[in-house]
Amino acid sequence: MTAPADPRPDAPRPDAARSTGSTGPGAPAPRGPHAAERAGAKAPHHGDRWRRWRAPVAGRANALHAGAWWVWALGLATAASRTSNPLLLALVVAVAGYVVAARRTEAPWARSYGAFLRLGGFVLVVRLVFAVVLGSPVPGTHVLVTLPEVPLPGWAQGVRIGGRVTAEGVVFALRDGMKLAALLVCVGAANALANPARLLKSLPGALYEAGVAVVVAMTFAPHLVADVARLRAARRLRGRPDRGVRALLQVGLPVLEGALERSVALAAAMDTRGYGRTAQVPAGVRRATSALTLGGLLGICAGTYALLSASGAGYGLPVLLAGLAAAVAGLRLGGRRSVRTRYRPDRWGPRAWLVAGSGVAVAALMIAAASYAPDALDPPAYPLTAPTLPLWPALSLLLGLLPAFVAPAPPATRPEPGAATAAEAGVEGATR
Amino acid sequence: MIRFENVSVTYADAPAPAVAGIDLFVPEGELCLLVGPSGVGKSTLLGAVSGLVPHFTGGVLDGRVTVAGRDTRTHRPRELADVVGTVGQDPLAHFVTDTVEDELAYGMESLGVAPETMRRRVEETLDLLGLADLRDRPIATLSGGQQQRVAIGSVLTVHPQVLVLDEPTSALDPGAAEEVLAVLQRLVHDLGTTVLMAEHRLERVVQYADQVILLPSPGAAPVVGAPADVMAVSPVHPPVVGLARLAGWSPLPLSVRDARRRAGELRERLAGRTPAPVAPYATAPAPDAEPLVHCSRLTVRRGRTEALRGVDLSVRAGETVAVMGRNGAGKSTLLSTLVGLHPPASGTVTVAGTVPRDTRPAELLRRVGLVPQEPRDLLYADTVAAECAAADHDAAAPPGTCAALVGELLPGIAHGAHPRDLSEGQRLTLALAIVLTARPPVLLLDEPTRGLDYAAKSRLVGHLHGLAAAGHAILLATHDVELAAELAQRVLVLADGDVVSDGPAADVVLSSPAFAPQVAKILAPAPWLTPAQVRKALEAAS
């Protein structure tokens, strides 16, 4: 803005991410002071300060804790579950989408966001089709179209196929579908922003082995896809058609064989690298662990269900907290069996607090809004009214945008994998 | 450090032990090389050191294997993880996590190393292996040599006293192989690590070994000794040893440098003679004949990267062309494009008069055949006989065509055998027979010598010479400079998607140290490429 010679003082260099190694999480931009010095001659003072507070370039050292992203996303999801106002739901999706656009990396898992968006759209369409074909419980007077009704036998009373399609019914289904889609988009956002493997890394030691199984399964999916592509290509080499369902089915067996072989090889490799070394613990501790963990998980399930189901908000929170406490104690105890240590776990710094806090705040404010503006959050489908955008709930949703400003920004330019490889391999051109 | 006492291993359902009567000792800080033809039990022996045999593979182990004083019978692989680091043939099968840095730390995490120590060792290992620039990269995006180095690094961080490697350089281009070997050298010299490795590409490794263990044939007792002594009697040996045996040098030189210092007299004897072409054109290609393979300004994109850029190429009948270049240079993409697996982004491809992308597979089969990098991909059936019958059916060839080819190329193979149970070389030859069933005039081979021993390789060279003489156009992508020297009349070098040189094999390989075969390096500047050439010349002289 004030330094025309260097329009993007924070433009990341390939090494910028690594040079932040000594900077704690949540520290201000590591290059900020230098940028400020350079611009200092011309820039007014408040400009420096603004730049100092800009989010640093993301690297391994200052990576935001994966749990923070999930808390944020679940906060948004809770907010979405509390309203059926299409404008507010659209706002939730927009907030999640903006943060994803601003903070996602080029990593493979980050590409899943598009898939979740499509899934959300699909759910919306399915919900609408059901409402149109099977009718809707909502009373309505505005008939859009009357489909031919399928006569059903007496025992199927209460089920209707075809018949009147009312505007009220369609609007109700649309809102319902939007709510589901918004929930999916929130989960997709968490998936795109947090490396799932890193999330599993922050699991307690007792869950580590299950976590590895999940990580291995996740890295297996891309391998399977690659195998299918390779074997279909091989079919072409044998002169058999390589397109169509039949071709896909016929490579199924070899692909499974390959996957099985790879798992055996991986298991051998993991065994030789010390996977599954355990320490001895007394039997009493083991039993206490099981009891605490199981009881805790049950409590968490019951509490979460109560919280999300609107009716049980009163006892939901205490049950959830008690369950959490029991589960944490169980996992702590279970961790004694494992001799593992953790390499550079993600640290929960101020930025993680801010990100997680914004999600929690959004959820809390929306729950509060349900008491002061119930009609705006849940406008009745009958009679048909145009939804309004309630000011305070909308503003509280905008709090969810905070991560787009405080979370470390991914490097904007990434080295092309191919280019780095070429520079690396080091065989000189043969003619030189 | 590693001690085998009268060890034999018998797998379930096997009629004979895989290895028998092994008595050997590898002292601390040695680089020990395990050599022998395919199928003599090298992998079994390596597995016995890491404890995978018999704990993981099953089977019965007689005798006693001790590593750093621990008996592998009573210690499972995970309990040996802090003294033995194992890297298998395929580095990709070895990785548990998805980024370089996590992978390096994985083993230490399992062993419960303190976090500060872990961080320090990861940094040291990143520097030792030259991986510092790759630390945040997803492993899947690395090249083969980089992956191999990450795999080695991931076992080094736990500071094992013994490193066990199965074919660490087979899949690598010459440059990447040098990198990996330099790292191993450093470990042995600087850290005193004991390295035990099996490798077929002896020309790359034998000069670095302190001790060689030769398994001459299945079930036979191993021959253990200094590299020069063992190579003098070994059935598998690199070209430098072949040349030394011809010239009668003793003690045997193992490196190009040693051989070159002895070669003065041989160079004089050979002076004035011109080497017979290694791969003579069976029929001189008519310059005006229509080329069988023709690419012009061919550009192929894979994702957003241009894998090939403006490639011009034409190959005539009876010509053998080796396509060389580092891992990821576009060799495989070129071959796949010639069978229509990738659409050209621009430019044209014609193969035997057709555009491969627009031709039905059943039709294309009769024009061009590709033996892929993993020949197993081509094999679906349970037995060799069923595979042959399927190939006849696919190619609409008279029944028995493929079986006859198999009989010719692989004499003595059991037709009831499962393709999976064949050795690498046999599988490759079976795939070759299947591809040849449709009589394609153009034959493409992708990295055909991966995992092949010298005997299997020379059989393959014989087959391919025969096919070229019969008028096939052959294109092979390979890292194996010795193979290219023996087989090709022309060499095409790709770098980063561009053709950087294209010319007669002798000219191209002699002009580049990276691609020159050992004999050429020893006898330079005279254009000798293989020991066979030298033998012929010497025989003619006497």
UniProtKB/TrEMBL annotation, chain A:
<feature type="transmembrane region" description="Helical">
    <location>
        <begin position="86"/>
        <end position="103"/>
    </location>
</feature>
<feature type="transmembrane region" description="Helical">
    <location>
        <begin position="314"/>
        <end position="331"/>
    </location>
</feature>
<feature type="transmembrane region" description="Helical">
    <location>
        <begin position="391"/>
        <end position="409"/>
    </location>
</feature>
<dbReference type="InterPro" id="IPR003339">
    <property type="entry name" value="ABC/ECF_trnsptr_transmembrane"/>
</dbReference>
<protein>
    <submittedName>
        <fullName>Energy-coupling factor transport system permease protein</fullName>
    </submittedName>
</protein>
<feature type="compositionally biased region" description="Basic and acidic residues">
    <location>
        <begin position="7"/>
        <end position="16"/>
    </location>
</feature>
<keyword id="KW-1133">Transmembrane helix</keyword>
<feature type="transmembrane region" description="Helical">
    <location>
        <begin position="352"/>
        <end position="371"/>
    </location>
</feature>
<feature type="region of interest" description="Disordered">
    <location>
        <begin position="413"/>
        <end position="432"/>
    </location>
</feature>
<feature type="transmembrane region" description="Helical">
    <location>
        <begin position="206"/>
        <end position="226"/>
    </location>
</feature>
<feature type="transmembrane region" description="Helical">
    <location>
        <begin position="61"/>
        <end position="80"/>
    </location>
</feature>
<feature type="transmembrane region" description="Helical">
    <location>
        <begin position="291"/>
        <end position="308"/>
    </location>
</feature>
<keyword id="KW-0812">Transmembrane</keyword>
<dbReference type="Pfam" id="PF02361">
    <property type="entry name" value="CbiQ"/>
</dbReference>
<keyword id="KW-0472">Membrane</keyword>
<feature type="compositionally biased region" description="Low complexity">
    <location>
        <begin position="415"/>
        <end position="432"/>
    </location>
</feature>
<feature type="region of interest" description="Disordered">
    <location>
        <begin position="1"/>
        <end position="48"/>
    </location>
</feature>
<feature type="transmembrane region" description="Helical">
    <location>
        <begin position="115"/>
        <end position="135"/>
    </location>
</feature>
<dbReference type="GO" id="GO:0005886">
    <property type="term" value="C:plasma membrane"/>
</dbReference>
TrEMBL record, chain B:
<keyword id="KW-1278">Translocase</keyword>
<dbReference type="InterPro" id="IPR015856">
    <property type="entry name" value="ABC_transpr_CbiO/EcfA_su"/>
</dbReference>
<protein>
    <submittedName>
        <fullName>Energy-coupling factor transport system ATP-binding protein</fullName>
    </submittedName>
</protein>
<keyword id="KW-0547">Nucleotide-binding</keyword>
<keyword id="KW-1003">Cell membrane</keyword>
<keyword id="KW-0813">Transport</keyword>
<dbReference type="GO" id="GO:0042626">
    <property type="term" value="F:ATPase-coupled transmembrane transporter activity"/>
</dbReference>
<dbReference type="InterPro" id="IPR003593">
    <property type="entry name" value="AAA+_ATPase"/>
</dbReference>
<keyword id="KW-0067">ATP-binding</keyword>
<dbReference type="GO" id="GO:0005524">
    <property type="term" value="F:ATP binding"/>
</dbReference>
<dbReference type="InterPro" id="IPR017871">
    <property type="entry name" value="ABC_transporter-like_CS"/>
</dbReference>
<dbReference type="InterPro" id="IPR003439">
    <property type="entry name" value="ABC_transporter-like_ATP-bd"/>
</dbReference>
<comment type="function">
    <text>Probably part of an ABC transporter complex. Responsible for energy coupling to the transport system.</text>
</comment>
<feature type="domain" description="ABC transporter">
    <location>
        <begin position="2"/>
        <end position="243"/>
    </location>
</feature>
<comment type="similarity">
    <text>Belongs to the ABC transporter superfamily.</text>
</comment>
<keyword id="KW-0472">Membrane</keyword>
<feature type="domain" description="ABC transporter">
    <location>
        <begin position="293"/>
        <end position="521"/>
    </location>
</feature>
<dbReference type="GO" id="GO:0016887">
    <property type="term" value="F:ATP hydrolysis activity"/>
</dbReference>
<dbReference type="InterPro" id="IPR027417">
    <property type="entry name" value="P-loop_NTPase"/>
</dbReference>
<keyword id="KW-0677">Repeat</keyword>
<dbReference type="Pfam" id="PF00005">
    <property type="entry name" value="ABC_tran"/>
</dbReference>
<dbReference type="InterPro" id="IPR050095">
    <property type="entry name" value="ECF_ABC_transporter_ATP-bd"/>
</dbReference>
